[in-house]
Specification:
12 helices; 34% helix; DNA_methylase_N6_adenine_CS; Class I SAM-dependent methyltransferase; methyltransferase; transferase; N5-glutamine_MTase
C-alpha cells in the first residue's frame, strides 16, 4: 500500500508526517494547528467544513474537546423512518458522519510511537500492536489512538467465555466475542462426530476452541485476515488447544471434507466502513452466499453444516427468510434442525437506540444443515 503523508504549516514552516488511518480514510487536505484555547463550537464548525485540527495542547484536553464535539452532534434531531431498511441506512449515515467529524481531531506521534503532548499516556505497546513500527513521525486521529488503547485493554484482560471456563483475548482489529449466545449454541448443539471439524472465518478462534473443548479431535480453523490468524493462534495456544486446532489462511474453506463445518458469518448484508466492521457487515451477503454455495463440497458423508446467524437483517428489511431458505436450497442443502436463542446484550432493551425495534425482535439461530 502506498504511504500517504499529511502536510501543514506551523510557525510559518511547512511540515510533513506519515498519515495513518485504521479505517483507510484519506489524509486530510486542510489542517489547522490547535491547542487548549480551541473552543468546542469552533472545532465542531471546522470539522464539519472539512478542516482537521492537529493538536498541540494537553492530551487530556483533546479528549474533553472530542467529547464536547460529540455532544454537539448528539443534540441534532435524529432522522428516523418507519421503514426498517430506511431507518438502518439513516443510522449508518449518521454513524459515518459522526466518525468523519470526530476523526478530524489529529494527534502527532513521534517515530517511536510516543505522543509528544502534555499528560499523554505511555501507549507505545498498544500502538505497536495496532499500527506496527513506523520509524518516522506520523499523525493519526485521536479516535484511532483511543481505539488502539481500548483494544490493548481488551487483549490484556480478555473476555470470559463460560463455555470454555476461560478467557479469549481479542487483538486489535479482531471482533471481540462479547455476544455469548452464539457461542453457547455451538457449545450445546449435538455433535454429528468428534472426528474432525472446520471452523470457517475463525476470528479470535473462540468457536474452534469450543469444538476442541467438546472433544473434536482435529479442528481446522480458517480466516483470511492476518490479524485474526495471529489472534486465533495465540488464543488456542494459550488455552492448550494448538495440538488439536490448525489455523490456516483461506478464503472460506480448507481443502478436503469434514463431518462438521461451522460458520458464524457477519449477520448484516451491508457495506463495512472499517476492517473490524467486516465481522458485522457482509457486503451483498457475499460470505453467507459463499458458505452456503460451497459447504456441500466440504461435508463428509452424512456430515452437518452449522450456520450461526442472527435474523436481525430480516427485521431491518435487508434480507427475507425466504431468501435465506432459497440460498440454502441453491447450495443443495436441507434444514434438519434449527436451535434458537434470544440475545441478552444491552442494546436489546435500549429504547433510545435507533434500531431498537429490530433488536428487540432479534433471534440468533444455529441452523443444522445437510446435503440433500
Amino acid at each position: 500500500m502506498t504511504e500517504q503523508y499529511v502536510v501543514w504549516t506551523e510557525n510559518d514552516t511547512e511540515r510533513r508526517a506519515l498519515w495513518g488511518s485504521t479505517s483507510g480514510a484519506p489524509a486530510p487536505r486542510r489542517i489547522l494547528v490547535a491547542d487548549d484555547t480551541m473552543k468546542a463550537d469552533e472545532a465542531y464548525r471546522l470539522a464539519c467544513e472539512g478542516t482537521a485540527l492537529l493538536w498541540r495542547g494537553d492530551f487530556q484536553n483533546a479528549r474533553q474537546l472530542s467529547k464536547a464535539v460529540a455532544a454537539r452532534m448528539d443534540r441534532k434531531p435524529r432522522r428516523d423512518s418507519d421503514d426498517p431498511a430506511q431507518a438502518f441506512h439513516l443510522h449508518r449515515q449518521t454513524q459515518g458522519r459522526r466518525a468523519q467529524i470526530l476523526g478530524m481531531l489529529l494527534i502527532p506521534l513521534d517515530a517511536d510511537l510516543s505522543i509528544p503532548l502534555r499528560r499523554a499516556p505511555d501507549a507505545h505497546v498498544a500502538f505497536t500492536e495496532a499500527f506496527g513500527v513506523t520509524e518516522q513521525p506520523s499523525v493519526r486521529s485521536l479516535r484511532d489512538l483511543l481505539g488502539a488503547i481500548g483494544a490493548h485493554e481488551w487483549n490484556r484482560k480478555g473476555v470470559l467465555i463460560p463455555a470454555l471456563d476461560a478467557r479469549i483475548h481479542p487483538a486489535f482489529g479482531v471482533f471481540s466475542p462479547v455476544r455469548g449466545e452464539y457461542i453457547d449454541l455451538v457449545a450445546a448443539a449435538p455433535l454429528p462426530s468428534t472426528e474432525s471439524a472446520f471452523d470457517i472465518g475463525t476470528g479470535t478462534g473462540v468457536l474452534a476452541a469450543v469444538l476442541a473443548a467438546r472433544g473434536v479431535t482435529e479442528v481446522t480453523a480458517t480466516d483470511q485476515d492476518p490479524r485474526a490468524l495471529q489472534c486465533a493462534r495465540s488464543n488456542l495456544d494459550r488455552l492448550g488447544y494448538s495440538d488439536q486446532v490448525t489455523v490456516i489462511e483461506a478464503d472460506l474453506f480448507p481443502e478436503g471434507a469434514a463431518p462438521l463445518v461451522v460458520c458464524n458469518p457477519p449477520w448484516i448484508p451491508a457495506k463495512a466502513t472499517s476492517p473490524i466492521e467486516y465481522a458485522i457487515y457482509d457486503p451483498a451477503g457475499a460470505m453467507l452466499k459463499g458458505f452456503l454455495t460451497g459447504v456441500g463440497d466440504h461435508l463428509a458423508e452424512g456430515g452437518e453444516a452449522w450456520l450461526i446467524l442472527s435474523d436481525i437483517a430480516e427485521h431491518l428489511g435487508l434480507r427475507t427468510r425466504s431468501e435465506l431458505h432459497a440460498m440454502i436450497a441453491a447450495g443443495g442443502l436441507t434444514v434438519i434442525d434449527r436451535i434458537d436463542v434470544k440475545p441478552t446484550h444491552a442494546k436489546v432493551s435500549d429504547r433510545t437506540d435507533a434500531l431498537h425495534a429490530a433488536r428487540a425482535r432479534e433471534t440468533t439461530s444455529l441452523w443444522r444443515l445437510r446435503r440433500r
